[in-house]
């Protein structure tokens, strides 16, 4: 059972008790437990640093449950998955997070199997499924579709990727991964690959700007980070520089965040072919890298990281994908969990 109540607690430190299993109690400040109640999660632009920190803190407390410790914290709650684009990690880690906390999942499945194939609008689909579930997770090829869904949904909408737009829950797990190894403040990070169409790097750049990061953007000329994002970052005082050359940056950063070239977003396959193999990270590249460098990737990878890199100390991408579970647990708890 999941309960929440205020404790008179220590002076000046009102806490909520989240009773999440028969044996475990997590203490969490009331303001943090309630800051996300019934809210949509659409873009990292809407997150403050304090809000991000609170999600990461709760994720850390919930990690044992992601590893199999029993909990019924979300018993009786239902999460709906609406994926209009392929997904492995995002879809399955949301499902795992929900089920490990005792909740249930309903799945729209492929569009051919639903009324979408009869011409039903996204607005109507969302209105209907919002009546069955406590929250909706949506991935869609069109930018802005999660925001549109949120206008019609009676329950919180979580954006699991809208075209080349945003992917906020991925960013939260990326930040969690970085924090596990080092620090979020004053980080030197290179975002590498498809910075034009890659939604993970769009969201991540916004979040990093809240922590004073030094960001190097590494991409082919035709796949540079969109201007509006760069000017938003600069207006926040974030140090951003751009280059096409990965060699030039690899030895001077704490984090290398690799991405695949997003083939499905290219209007012209010929243009994709021109940039398809722009970067390929191999162990030789890393010979003079910082000792504590970590290499991240939202996955799936195509050929931008050679399999031989997997065995190096620097590789974090598989660990990173596991962290999707505790981080999504934390978000779901904060959005739809019982308690204060
Ligand atoms: C990313 C996505 O869908 O944007 N994958 C993910 O969610 N882990 C990255 C990608 O597809 O390249």
Give a written overview of the molecule.
- This protein is α/β, with parallel strands linked by helices and 340 residues long.
- The protein is 33% helix and 19% strand.
- It has two domains: 38-163, Aspartate/ornithine carbamoyltransferase (Rossmann fold, 3-Layer(aba) Sandwich), CATH 3.40.50.1370; 168-322, 3-Layer(aba) Sandwich (Rossmann fold).
- The strands form three sheets. Strands 10-9-8-11-12 form a five-stranded parallel sheet, with helices on one face. The chain has a four-stranded parallel sheet with strand order 5-4-6-7, with helices on both faces. It has a three-stranded antiparallel sheet with strand order 1-2-3.
- The two termini are 14 Å apart.
- The relative contact order is 0.16.
- Mean pLDDT is 91; it is low at 1-12.
- Bound molecules: N-carbamoyl-L-aspartate.
- N-carbamoyl-L-aspartate is lined by residues 89-90, 161, 167, 170, 199-200, 259-260, 262, 298-299.
């Amino acid at each position: 059972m999941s309960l929440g109540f205020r404790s008179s607690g220590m002076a000046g430190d009102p806490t909520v008790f989240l009773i999440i299993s028969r044996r475990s109690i997590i203490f969490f400040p009331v303001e943090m437990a309630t800051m996300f109640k019934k809210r949509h999660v659409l873009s990292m632009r809407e997150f403050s640093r304090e809000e991000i920190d609170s999600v990461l803190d709760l994720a850390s407390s919930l990690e044992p449950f992601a590893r199999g410790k029993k909990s019924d914290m979300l018993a009786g709650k239902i999460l709906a998955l609406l994926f209009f684009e392929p997904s492995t990690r995002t879809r399955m880690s949301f499902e795992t997070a929900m089920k490990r906390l005792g909740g249930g999942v309903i799945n729209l499945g492929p569009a051919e199997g639903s009324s979408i194939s009869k011409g039903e609008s996204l607005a109507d689909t969302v209105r209907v499924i919002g009546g069955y579930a406590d929250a909706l997770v949506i991935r869609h090829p069109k930018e802005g579709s999660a925001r549109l869904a949120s206008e019609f949904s009676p329950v919180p909408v979580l954006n699991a990727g809208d075209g080349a737009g945003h992917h906020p829950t991925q960013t939260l797990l990326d930040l969690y991964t970085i924090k596990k190894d080092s620090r979020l403040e004053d980080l030197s990070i290179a975002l590498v690959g498809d910075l034009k169409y890659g939604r993970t790097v769009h969201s991540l750049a916004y979040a990093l700007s809240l922590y004073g990061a030094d960001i190097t953007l590494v991409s082919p000329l035709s796949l540079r980070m969109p201007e509006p994002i760069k000017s938003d970052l600069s207006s926040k005082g974030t140090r951003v520089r751009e280059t096409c050359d990965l060699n030039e940056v690899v030895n001077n950063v704490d984090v290398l965040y690799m991405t695949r070239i997003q083939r499905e977003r290219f209007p012209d396959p010929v243009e994709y072919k021109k940039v398809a193999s722009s970067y390929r990270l191999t162990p030789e590249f890393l010979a003079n890298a910082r000792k504590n460098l970590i290499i991240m990737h939202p996955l799936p990878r195509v050929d931008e990281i050679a399999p031989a890199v997997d065995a190096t100390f620097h590789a974090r991408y598989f660990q990173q994908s596991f962290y999707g579970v505790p981080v999504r647990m934390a978000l779901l708890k904060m959005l739809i969990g019982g308690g204060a």
